[in-house]
Amino acid sequence: MPTTLRLFVSADLSAGSVLVLDDEQSNYLLRVLRLGVGGEVRLFNGRDGEWDTAITSVTGKRATVSPVSQRRPQPAPTSPAMTLLFAPVKKDETDLIVEKATELGAVSICPVLTQRTQTRTVRLDRFNKIALEAAEQTERLDLPAITDLAGLDQALDVLTPGTAVIFCDEAGDEAGAPWGGDTGRAGPARAVLEGLRGRNAAILIGPEGGFTPEERAFLRARPDTFAVSLGPRILRAETAAISAMTLWQAVCGDWG
Ligand code: SAH
Predict the structure, then answer these.
(1) Is 20 touching ligand 1 by the criterion CB < 6 Å?
(2) SS3 for 236?
(3) pLDDT by residue (tens digit) across 169-216?
């Protein structure tokens, strides 16, 4: 049994409160892990911190638990916050992006439609389940917000004002292109991020087909938008997402 069995619940958590777990969680504790009265599980709800709890009774297939002590207080919302904007790709790779964004501390995960996005629909219930399980495993005390599929400009418009948009542009620069040359060069990611410390960030990753010249021109003309290169090799979208989020956490985030 995992030493740090953790489950997300929506109910309030406080000393002495009593929670009846739902069928799925009760089944996991009672049948899969074969716990019984006295069995211990850590619960979090994104608001009240993390609590050590114990199973106090089993009625039919449902387990009732009672918080015993608060293990960790709910931290203040992460600052600065990192959001991932990504064009959905193939199903498994998209699932991977959602899981890794959760582990890497994204506060919001936003699928966006770009001109070359192949996948035009997303399963939000699936994304939420993946994010919930990843949050339990990674010992987060909150869940990332997962937004519905939106157009690129719409997804950008709803960002908190002042958010630095880190536009991962695989094309680097083409001096002759209207967006290339000195108009917003795609700088080395680490150097650009070092100049963005303290600012909320939205990392933008394109689809398998990359961004169009029109999208590049639109993005590079935007305020608070920074084109970055993730090196000389073309990375798969999932590799680029994981790499960019990792670098951001190391340079600007909570890995310090
Ligand atoms: N157009 C590419 C594939 C794009 S990769 C091709 O020719 O196959 C998908 C996304 O990952 C890109 O839109 C970009 O956001 C990101 N990405 C991949 N490699 C990158 C790099 N070297 N620098 C910056 N972003 C990159």
Answers:
(1) no
(2) coil
(3) 988 667 677 666 666 678 899 999 999 999 999 999 999 999 998 999
Question: Ligand 1 centroid vs 123 CA: distance in angstroms?
Answer: 24
Q: Tell me the per-residue pLDDT of 81-111, one tens digit each, with 9 for 90 and over.
A: 999 999 999 999 999 999 999 999 999 999 9
β-pair type (82-86, 145-146): unpaired
Architecture of domain 6-72 in this structure: Beta Barrel (2.40)
User: In the CATH hierarchy, which fold is given to the domain comprising 82-251?
Assistant: Alpha/beta knot (3.40.1280)
- Distance separating alpha carbons of residues 182 and 100, to the nearest angstrom: 34
Report how far ligand 1's centroid is from the alpha carbon of 5 (Å): 37
Crossing angle (nearest 10°) for helices 91-103 and 237-251: 10
Checking if the pLDDT of 1 tops 50, the result is: no
Two domains, one topology: 6-72 and 82-251 = no
- Tell me which of 23-32, 94-103, 169-178, 231-240 is least confident: 169-178
Domain positions in the chain? 6-72, 82-251
Do strands 201-205 and 164-168 pair parallel, antiparallel, or not at all (unpaired)?
parallel
Return the DSSP state at 162.
T
From the alpha carbon of 89, which atom of ligand 1 is closest? Answer: 9
Q: Helix (H, G, I), strand (E, B), or coil: what is residue 147?
A: coil
* Token reading at 134: 């990843």
